[in-house]
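Hey, I was hoping to borrow your eyes for a little while. I'm sending you its amino acid sequence along with the backbone structure tokens. Take your time with it, there's no hurry, and the full record follows here.
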Amino acid sequence: MISVLAWLIGVLLVAVLFGAAYQAFGTHRDKQNYPPPGRLVDLGTHRLHLHETGGKGPTILLEAGLMSTVLSWSGLQKELGQEFRVVSYDRAGLGWSDLGPMPRTAERIVDELNALLERAAIPEPYVLVGHSFGGLTMPLFAARFPKKIAGVVLVDPVAAAEWNPPSAHDLKLTRIGAAVCRRAAVLARMGLIRFVAALLTTRARKGAAFLVRLISRGAPDESGTVSSPWFAALPPEEQAMAAIFWIQPKFALTIASQLENLPASAARVAEFPVFSEMPVAILSARTAPEHRRKEHAELAARLPLGRHILVENSNHWIMQAAPELLVQEIRNVVETSPAFRKVAIAVTGGEKG
């Protein structure tokens, strides 16, 4: 009996070691095959991936959603780059960025973003553009660093009021989601998530889909699994790289922490009901829940230069469904911003006319 148990433990240990080696080799290969489009900036504790295009005019800073990367902005960044300096980045643990210190709160994310912009020498002032989860980080950045901000555009953002405090249902979902992510992080270290992702591209994809459901058991249908409606709505660039980014332990650990800290992040943002004196445009998707659209409208009404825009025929990914409208709203913020007016006066030596 003891010898059988020892044999089973030995087999399990070999499997774990083999899986870890498989994961390490695959990660090294992915880094070679999929280099970052931008540059990695060292913050001392970890590196963040920064993607800068354009190079002229005001600086537009793009913040992605909860699980997203610079790739969610690909089309819009190219379009905006014809008129502005455009900067997108991957938060710590996502995309090409390193895993960052925990916990992953909006406060920590804003601190890291400010350090990134300073170390990368990105010129001020900034027009902040935040999608979804960016509805927590961008208002907090604007509130904490008002002299660096020329305006804000929020794209179907998470509203702080939704999570301050969260409903019992939402709190339960975040706890389940975090638990699933931590389970996935353990399995990712052993190479199992990578193996399942590889199976999804073969004739064994039905079996692989079963394994995905097993790994993500307990998660709601709208969660971020490859079989969910949420995944199907992702931009093509994000979908294509999910098999590279989502199989890394850093990704799962980061999402778990961001989810767990949504209430704390929202509470911090709620401390600044009027987060900016500069122009702010808040865009709501028609498919957004009614309570979220209501929060968007109320937030815009509280701001001195706030505007609320309901985007018809759009889902959560407004930058994909209505890019022309979003570009125009960013232009409007730039053109009406007192911060850029001051810059223009300083350059010309006084007002004309």
Remarks:
- The chain has two domains: 39-165+268-347, 168-260.
- The first strand starts at residue 39 and ends at 42.
